[in-house]
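Slack export, channel: ligand-projects

TW: morning all. Re-posting the request from yesterday since it got buried. We need the structure predicted with the small molecule present, not the apo form. The ligand is flavin-adenine dinucleotide; the SMILES is in the block with the sequence. No rush, but it would help planning for next week.
GE: picking it up
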Amino acid sequence: MQNQWSAVNSGPLTGWGRYPVVQAKTVRPENWSAVDNYVKNANSDTLIARGKGRSYGDASINDNGYTILLERFDRFTSFDNTSGDLHLESGVTLEEIINIFAPRGWFPAVVPGTKYVTVGGAIAADIHGKNHHRDGSFCNFVKSFTVIVASGEKVFCSREQNSDLFWATVGGMGLTGIITDVQMTLKPIESVFVEKTEIKAKNLDAVMSLFDQHEKDYQYSVAWIDCLARGNDLGRSILMLGNSLTKDDERIKHLSNPLSLKEKRQIQVPIDSPDWLLNPFTMGTFNSLFYAKQMSDHHKGIANFESYFFPLDAIGSWNRLYGKRGFIQHQTVFPEETSREALKTLLTLSSENGWGSFLAVLKRFGPQDGWLSFPRPGYTLTLDIAVKDGLFDFLKELESVVLNYGGRIYLAKDAFLSADGFRKMYPRFDEWQKVKAKYDPKNTFSSHLSQRLEIR
Ligand SMILES: Cc1cc2nc3c(=O)[nH]c(=O)nc-3n(C[C@H](O)[C@H](O)[C@H](O)COP(=O)(O)OP(=O)(O)OC[C@H]3O[C@@H](n4cnc5c(N)ncnc54)[C@H](O)[C@@H]3O)c2cc1C
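GE: finished. pasting the full token output, ligand included:
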């Protein structure tokens, strides 16, 4: 019999942020029985699933064992054109779902800022979109899935059946096993267009009141923040609100097919940006220009789904813009009561210390059920920070601010959080760990993230 690890490749592997880099052994199985075999014969080796590798930090890399690439599991099993119920394999990407179902009038109810993620990765991180305040996260639209657990057994789970495994896998970062097939529900759409309203806010207080004032009337809301602005301008931003357009809307009525997706060309970033490009001056200029580009304080327009939901997908390999050493994405959420003070503190720290970001994004979350799911009611801030000397100390400082204000850091983006900080931020971890121990007593499923956070 052929050695089960014969298809192994070795080499450097990273998440989307290109930090940290590990020497990884990867396998790309052809069918589920091969995956089963890997799991059953893992012995003392550890395994972690990987979808499209769009988590930023170290969730889908494993330097102490094997990384199982699941892109080949991309088949659709069935679709109910009345209910929107879709049965598919976990390696199917949101891009594939959109390409096939948007022209038929269906769309994933929750999408992140890129369509290049797999359904397995979306469940494991319980991802959120611009509509979290209304609809919650991706798993709110997942009915059930099957997991290959450490014994090699395939366990079907849903909110009713084996619900402990269901809730531990949602947001569980691949640490309960490998999700094979999924039943989820798509939402009906009448067009692939959004009416967007952009409103300028002169500082953080202003943007928070705009969220309060307008959000209930919009399906989607997100604000871009100039995270280098200081003093009275701290938190100056552009709030971007959106609602899907119906086919009868005056502005698109003339289109022969309002569900048609336009082919979009992608620009590639050919080389890594040199380090000198990322300095407080270039970032400050970029941020000021972005804020100034919108002349009026209130602007309305129409965007297609592609540019509204996935603007960064138009630039291939944009993660190279942060240079060879990579970058981290630091996403936090704070309770409503502490959000204002916490955000002021984080923004002040990053602008005063020159840890600027081309992109800082503010969103509002509603409630969420998953035990390790990141969202909770309150405001969430995302900062992109290039890896350079002193970053670890800065992130330690941010971690204590996050803890002080009762916030938490998103594991799908994280590469630095401490084991102790993680336990304080995720209060249902004990409950989760019991289920991990039940289905994975020898800690077969393990990643660089779980080793750093001492999850076993
Ligand atoms: C440009 C960009 C924008 C983004 N915007 C958002 C956003 O708005 N909201 C948001 O929530 N996230 C966002 N993300 C993060 C992204 O949605 C998540 O990291 C997602 O998990 C990536 O999916 P993936 O298929 O690439 O998974 P990977 O990165 O390959 O893996 C992520 C985790 O899922 C696990 N996993 C993958 N497949 C399986 C499986 N079949 N079974 C069990 N576990 C599995 C892995 O072990 C790992 O722990 C963004 C990422 C990028 C690059």
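GE: first-pass observations. Residues 16, 48-55, 59-60, 70, 90, 112-114, 117-118, 120-122, 124-125, 127-129, 173-174, 178-179, 312, 412, 447 surround flavin-adenine dinucleotide (CB under 6 Å). The CA atoms of residues 371 and 428 lie 6 Å apart.
TW: perfect, thank you
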